[in-house]
């Protein structure tokens, strides 16, 4: 398994215009997985990035969107052969799957190295992808974490919108304990500093 961050997410306010796009991660398997697919205007960007990795859209087996916001689901339609996991919603074409039940805390196991777990807070149906890589545990969290700086500045994740700050704090802490690295929703991947680990 190889984990490639295709695009670092960002969010910034400049000249009174707020711009944001998500982090997008490719897991080269098998199974091939893409996590968060930018906005609906980013087809070309994604196709080019996949081409550079010698991966074809039709060879992606799973699309996982950490939640249903427009900057995380935009290019899902490129991946017609994949099962789509969008937050707690799991589907392929018009078929919807009721298992596993994320609401009940169940996990979606994609392989022995890849699983999807419920981490609500930013929205009530956020999920995080846990990747057991050679270099350690990588958590692709979507907007559970906005960017590295929000570890010290809670305004950053709270101002990005939080449907339950209480749940988000709980799940942020859970991920900080599990993960060696975090790919946040709107910033580059970072290593979890030791001081955030409960001893
Ligand atoms: Zn976002």
Automatic annotation (TrEMBL):
Residues in Metallo-beta-lactamase domain copies: 21-186
Catalytic activity: a ribonucleotidyl-ribonucleotide-RNA + H2O = a 3'-end ribonucleotide-RNA + a 5'-end 5'-phospho-ribonucleoside-RNA + H(+)
InterPro entries xref list: MBLAC1, Metallo-B-lactamas, RibonucZ/Hydroxyglut_hydro
Subcellular location: Cytoplasm, Cytosol
A GO BP entry: RNA 3'-end processing
Recorded GO CC terms: cytosol
Xref: Pfam families: Lactamase_B
Reported function: Endoribonuclease that catalyzes the hydrolysis of histone-coding pre-mRNA 3'-end. Involved in histone pre-mRNA processing during the S-phase of the cell cycle, which is required for entering/progressing through S-phase. Cleaves histone pre-mRNA at a major and a minor cleavage site after the 5'-ACCCA-3' and the 5'-ACCCACA-3' sequence, respectively, and located downstream of the stem-loop. May require the presence of the HDE element located at the histone pre-RNA 3'-end to avoid non-specific cleavage.
Record note on quaternary structure: Homodimer.
Protein name as it appears in the record: Metallo-beta-lactamase domain-containing protein 1
